[in-house]
Specification:
This is phosphoribulokinase. GO terms for molecular function: ATP binding; phosphoribulokinase activity. The chain has 311 residues and is of the alpha/beta class. The chain has a single domain, classed as Rossmann fold (3-Layer(aba) Sandwich), CATH 3.40.50.300. The protein contains eight helices and eleven strands. β9 and β10 form a beta hairpin. α5 packs across α6.
Length: 311
Amino acid sequence: MGTKGVVGSFLVGVAGDSGSGKSTFARGIVRLFGTVQVATISLDDYHLLDRQQRKQQDIVALDPRANDLKKLAQHAEMLKQGKTIPKPRYNHSTGKIDPPVSFKPKRVVILEGLLPFHTKKLRELMDFFIYIDPDFEVKKIWKIKRDVEERGHSRQAVLASIAERSPHYERFIAPQRRYAEIIVNIKGERSEERYRRGSPYWVRLVQKLTEEGLSDIHLPLDLSAMCQSEGEELYFEYRKGMRGKSKVSKIEINGLIAREALSEVEARIAEIAGRPQAHVLPRSKRYVTEIDIAQLIIAWRVVERIAAKES
């Protein structure tokens, strides 16, 4: 699969609360396609009101009224038509709205933010739907780390913001879960000392069952590692169930697996994407975590949809 004949962008919507890990779980798609073929738009750029105006009007950024969803839909449609857009910019450092910049369509555009599925028009434009849904305590830790270290906010201000936003999250953001093709649940493991080198997170991928013709992808199982003292622990569970009225599969992962063990899977996904030299997993790691494996599975599902659309 290549890019020949592709005019407009394939749109991947990634929804979730602030600090929920949206960029993290979309990272495999970015690695696979590279910056030449993929770009990300933060939907924070479509805030209608700056920080001061939101404070004056007593409205939070999660409220659809604080966001220009009509302009977002117009721009999404233009990208699908292969047109350049004047993308607005929200400045997290100043809390103000900066002048727009020219944004050219790429093969894949990730629309990442609070409300990518909120309107019917936006849902009609999206080609793939992902919802990131960490447990509250995990989300709180991640948001504090990001907003304090990257955005210069005080810890106290971030905690106050989390408390203020919580009911608005349940009202405006969480209902979008019903539209997602993949929901990523993340929960923490309290006894972190159990993990010698892995992360303390359990990741569950809840995927709507599909009738799409998917490529054969096989995950390896290294039995020898289970009998060796240096082997790492890996938990992998698969089962089917229901989410609302939808039939779903549930894959739960925790622990580590050698990156090399997934090399054939990764190569097959890159082949389907028409990017045989590309990779999804981080090259700097000898062992990859449940988060990395989730990135791999998400990238594969997106690639399969792109392949079907471009064929």
